[in-house]
Amino acid sequence: MFKVKDHYYHKAKSENYLARSIYKLEEIDQKYKILKPGDNVIDLGYFPGSWSQYTAPKVGPDGKVFAIDIQPVNKKLQLPNLKTFEMDIFNLKGPQDLGHDHLFDVVLSDMAPKTTGIKTVDQARSLDLIESVFKLLPILLKPNGHFVIKVFDSHDAQVFLKANKKLFKEMNYLKPKSTRSISKEFFVIAKSFIG
Ligand SMILES: C[S@@+](CC[C@H](N)C(=O)[O-])C[C@H]1O[C@@H](n2cnc3c(N)ncnc32)[C@H](O)[C@@H]1O
Q1: How far, CA to CA in Å, does 33 sit from each of 26, 106, 127?
Q2: pTM (2 d.p.)
Q3: What is the pLDDT of residues 24-37, one digit of tens each?
Q4: Is 150 annotated as catalytic?
């Protein structure tokens, strides 16, 4: 996770966060007010867990974070209101598979496909992943719930997002300051799910 040892790498280390990606979610949340006390949140592709580390205290003791990754559970990540699962999110049938009775207030996805270095292949894989997560929303996200997802920019991704804008009352795009300048990633912050 800590591949490039830049300012955010050192900041995350010194603040005991498991990855520099924490600062992306922090900026998103400060700007768009995604998380609030009492929320039940699902963190898709959480490993190693910096987004969950940020989210769990934000939702507080009345909220819960359900963190899923295809990788074995990160035992370093222990928080009272957090449950971690080793699972492919596309095997998920709904919140009941995680021992939860309700749809989630917030769906977070920082998932990334395995990259090949071949731009067109990586863009296509990323779009596949994004389309699949959008398809899961009706079984995960409450009406009026919020959604954050990482996207690798491409013409097709832009077309897909435009076509799905109507699923939410509001859809914003942000490239956080902590994202490396050469990166093609940005985040979609979609508020108030209509479905
Ligand atoms: C960039 S990392 C997430 C970093 C995390 N947000 C943090 O702050 O620590 C992306 C993760 O997505 C996971 N992932 C990719 N496809 C997945 C899938 N189908 N199901 C579950 N996790 C998946 C990968 O295993 C990887 O750990």
Answers
A1: 10, 11, 26
A2: 0.95
A3: 999 999 999 999 99
A4: yes
